[in-house]
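Retro notes (design track)

What went well: tokenization of the new backbones is finally stable.
What didn't: we kept losing track of which sequence belonged to which structure.
Fix going forward: every design gets posted as structure first, then sequence, in one message. First example under the new rule, 244 residues:
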């Protein structure tokens, strides 16, 4: 640790140089300025920074997962709603014109329901990444952009989330009728002239969109904690984020 003894000696001399009759408020301002100029001001301990960030991220990830996991969490949020795949969108108008609109709607609804079912699994994965966070990680997040923590999670958890989400999405889609609705729409599209089959990985499509929506909501929760003092619901959060 760097030796601060010379600085302390200078600081003491400065204190003794202050006129005894100086106003108390002026003295306090002087001392604060002197300490800052000498590099002696008290900062946050490493443990406080890490604990504060972990607390913030536990709160933020919990809120984000809760938002997308509730009924219509994806469907009723235009920012993260899982839209029809591009190939279906190209044929959507025609499908509706021939009375196939209800099948199209069921297909879209069931994809979003599957995402809702899979989303809760993300919480434990996020929290696992939080437990592994180092002081260096915490400092970079604290001093980073409004979505620095979200970027951290994307880098640390995306692969694991993909592995965990995809089979859950697959099972959920079977249970809520995505596969049946998908096959029904695909059969109709293949029967149309000048169209192609919906031959693509539907599980991957829904998984990718579900994770995109989750990370978007996580970024919004992170931004609230950084910018809105009212979102800092504990004393430690207030202390850590006030130092940004």
């Amino acid at each position: 640790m760097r030796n601060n003894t010379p600085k302390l000696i200078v600081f003491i001399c400065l204190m003794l140089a202050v006129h005894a009759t100086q106003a108390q408020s002026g003295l306090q301002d002087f001392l604060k300025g002197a300490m800052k100029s000498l590099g002696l001001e008290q900062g946050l301990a490493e443990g406080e920074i890490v604990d504060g960030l972990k607390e913030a991220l536990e709160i933020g990830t919990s809120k984000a997962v809760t938002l997308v996991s509730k009924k219509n969490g994806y469907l009723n949020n235009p920012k993260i709603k899982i839209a029809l795949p591009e190939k279906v969108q190209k044929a959507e108008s025609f499908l509706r014109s021939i009375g196939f609109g209800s099948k199209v709607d069921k297909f879209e609804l069931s994809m979003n329901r599957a995402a809702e079912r899979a989303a809760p699994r993300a919480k434990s994965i996020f929290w696992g990444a939080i437990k592994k966070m180092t002081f260096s990680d915490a400092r970079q997040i604290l001093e980073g952009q409004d979505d620095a923590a979200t970027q951290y999670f994307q880098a640390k958890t995306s692969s694991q989330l993909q592995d965990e989400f995809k089979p859950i999405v697959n099972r959920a889609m079977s249970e809520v009728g995505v596969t049946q609705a998908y096959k029904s729409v695909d059969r109709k599209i293949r029967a149309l002239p000048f169209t192609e089959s919906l031959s693509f990985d539907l599980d991957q499509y829904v998984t990718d969109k579900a994770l995109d929506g989750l990370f978007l909501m996580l970024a919004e929760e992170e931004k609230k904690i950084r910018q809105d003092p009212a979102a800092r619901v504990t004393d430690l959060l207030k202390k850590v984020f006030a130092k940004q």
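Added context from the reviewer: The longest helix spans residues 148-176.
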